[in-house]
Design goal:
By secondary structure, the protein is mainly alpha-helical. The chain has two domains: about 80 residues, Tetratricopeptide repeat domain (Serine Threonine Protein Phosphatase 5, Tetratricopeptide repeat), CATH 1.25.40; about 70 residues, Alpha Horseshoe (Serine Threonine Protein Phosphatase 5, Tetratricopeptide repeat), CATH 1.25.40.10. The chain is built from ten helices and two strands; from the N terminus they run βααααααααααβ. Strands 1-2 form a two-stranded antiparallel sheet. α5 runs parallel beside α7. The N and C termini lie close together (about 5 Å).
């Protein structure tokens, strides 16, 4: 069986708009929370989302973004619970399912993470980040061929995600597909996806 060193690296994407259900809700705190999260000021971001949620407790975008911040802080189960709250309110909110998958990945519950990503992709299959994160979870379960397919789906949507090319190359090399791995690594490009935050929780050896 191939041995592939895969970092548990996921990409948290944020909703930039939070239509208020309550006309008294202040979107300023939501915007501030996003800014703070992207700056890495996670405690402050959570506090800002909490202030927004005081006036609009059922806002799925704010719940999902707060969950992303909590996962980045290592509070994975709390993040899962928030995502469940969001999907109870709106079962078709893809970002909440994807963020739940990210938190489950942080907990090492990869099979559940894949199920959450699959639900997100049923709703919105054109999200490169979700395909990437699904590939990470699959790789950490040793399902390398499926991981490659997920990375391919991600790259079809966004060919400029350097981490996708990197993971693709690592996985292909582990499968002994060295020429394809070299080709993938040669296509690495610098840069990041806007409105997203990368998180790494160390390396795991998958077999």
């Amino acid at each position: 069986m191939p041995r592939v060193l895969l970092a548990i690296v996921v990409l948290f994407c944020l909703s930039l708009s939070a239509p208020a259900d309550d006309g008294n809700a202040s979107e300023d705190w939501f915007v501030k929370g996003n800014e703070l999260l992207l700056q890495g000021r996670l405690d402050d971001a959570v506090a800002a989302y909490d202030l927004f949620l005081l006036n609009d407790s059922r806002n799925v975008a704010a719940l999902s973004n707060k969950a992303a911040a909590l996962s980045l802080m290592g509070s994975f189960q709390e993040a899962v619970d928030l995502c469940d709250q969001a999907t109870d309110i709106n079962a078709d909110y893809a970002l909440a399912w994807s963020t739940k998958g990210d938190a489950l990945t942080g907990l090492g519950r990869f099979q559940e993470a894949v199920a959450a990503y699959d639900r997100a992709l049923e709703i919105n299959p054109e999200t490169a980040v979700t395909w990437f994160n699904k590939g990470v979870a699959l790789g950490n379960m040793g399902r390398f061929e499926e991981a490659v397919r997920s990375y391919n789906e991600s790259l079809q949507i966004n060919p400029d995600m350097a981490e996708t090319w990197y993971n693709m190359g690592s996985t292909l090399a582990g499968l002994g597909r060295y020429e394809e791995a070299i080709s993938a690594r040669s296509l690495l490009k610098p840069g990041r996806t806007k409105e997203c935050v990368w998180a790494s929780w160390g390396d795991t050896m998958s077999r």
